[in-house]
Amino acid sequence: MPQLACVDLFCGVGGLTHGLISEGIPVAAGIDVDVACSYPFEINNGARFIPEDISHLMPEMLEEQFGSAEIRVLAGCAPCQPFSTYAQRYDGKNSTRWGLLYQFARLVKGSSPDLVTMENVSAVAKHEVFNDFVASLEEHGYHVWHEVVDCTQYGLPQSRKRMVLLASRHGQFELIPPTHDRAMTVRDAISGLPPIAAGGKSANDALHTASKLSMLNLERIRSSQPGGTWRDWPQRLVAECHRRETGKTYPGVYGRMSWDEPAPTLTTQFYGFGNGRYGHPEQDRGISLREGAILQGFPESYIFTREGNPAQFKALGRMIGNAVPVTLGKVIGRSIFRHLGIEQKIRANTESTEHMVRGVDTDATREALVA
Predict the structure, then answer these.
(1) pLDDT given for residue 98 in this prediction
(2) 3-state SS assignment for residue 72
(3) Helices (H), 118-255
(4) Terminus of the chain with fewer CB atoms < 10 Å: N or C?
(5) Quick one: angle between helices 350-357 and 38-45, nearest 10?
(6) pTM score, two decimals?
(7) 3 state DSSP class of 235
């Protein structure tokens, strides 16, 4: 087996990294401007977190992280907000956040990795910056494949469609075929967690905590049916904005999830009952931070805060909602091995890895994972 090394740009709390590592792809480092992601990234993955703005990063830094690896993988998910259908106000040439994809292309050109993988919202393909990114890769000798992927076909219990791009200097590189004929459901994912009340938390897991509800919203969720909308409520509970003609076409808020369907696409505000169809299927509350993380493919034991630190909904919601689903990271890892023609791959045991990296020296753990 050739020696591999991966660097994860825009790594966040490590969703993509964790998926890759659990499939046996060694990740040397994750790079992100958000220093709040440093602790969860390192403690769960045993890889180095480099707090750096990608636009200021030099290719030589990537060369240092790749070291002597025979196969170098550069992965990344540039912030998706500018490409979202909810953010069409951003201009492709003037927004600095759009420009991060051009910075990604610059780093590919400067470091010449063997493989490149990128994940983003499906709407990214409609924009000039994406076409420029693909053209840049092809110009520098990469075979490029990209497609909108339905993550439910790979075992993610969430209706999440994402653009996945794979590029290689060694021939055609595609995602493995779908692995699941039946979509995983909310019941499959979170039904085993202990019940909690709105504003409450589990005694055994600080992340299994739900945001508070006002008396009005408590009435609303009690009047909500799984898979239903605010249109099912008594008229007195309907928000004034939804009574107007302009608001009647927005039924996708203040709803409960359905047990036997995948969760809706999670945003950074998934913990708020009024922010989407994020009500628990039967308990009178929004889903907890832990439930959101599980629906993003993170294992239940994934650590997001230092012991004793309070769970801050806004900060953690952003980290979890912005993450590349761990499940998709695993699929990309398997696709890398198939592309390289490696059938007997060394799989990292996820459970033992999690125990190994907690409370020990990160450098030593990193060496153990890469060895």
Answers:
(1) 60
(2) strand
(3) 128-139, 186-190, 215-222, 240-243
(4) C
(5) 120
(6) 0.87
(7) helix
Contact 178, 154 (CB under 8 A): yes
Q: Look at residue 309 and tell me whether its pLDDT is greater than 60.
A: yes
Please tell me the total number of residues recorded for the chain in this structure.
Answer: 371
The 10s digit of each residue's pLDDT in 270-302 is: 999 988 899 999 999 999 999 999 999 999 999
Of 310, 224, 206, 232, nearest to 274 by C-alpha is 224
Domain residue spans of the chain:
4-183+324-370
| Token digits of residue 107 | 């780093």
Contact 62, 28 (CB under 8 A): no
Triad 2, 146, 61: Cα angle to 5°: 50
Q: What confidence score (pLDDT) does residue 365 get?
A: 37
Average pLDDT over residues 27-45: 97
- C-alpha span between 115 and 174 (Å, rounded): 11
CA distances from 369 to 199, 211, 332 (A): 39, 37, 18
Return the amino acid letter for 290. R
Confirm if 260 and 184 have CB atoms less than 8 A apart. Answer: no
The full 3-state SS of 273-321, as one line of letters, equals HHHCCCECCCCCCECCHHHHHHHCCCCCCCCCCCCCCCCCHHHHHHHHH
- Catalytic residue, chosen from 11, 80, 151, 241, is 80
Question: And the tokens for 196?
Answer: 């909690």
Look at residue 97 in the predicted model and tell me its pLDDT.
55
Per the listing, tokens 């007195």 go with 236
In one-letter notation, the amino acid at residue 257 is M
Specify whether 37 is catalytic: no
The CATH class of 4-183+324-370 is alpha beta
Q: pLDDT tens digits for 169-206?
A: 999 999 999 999 999 999 999 999 999 999 999 999 99
Are 217 and 210 in contact, with CB atoms under 8 Å apart? no
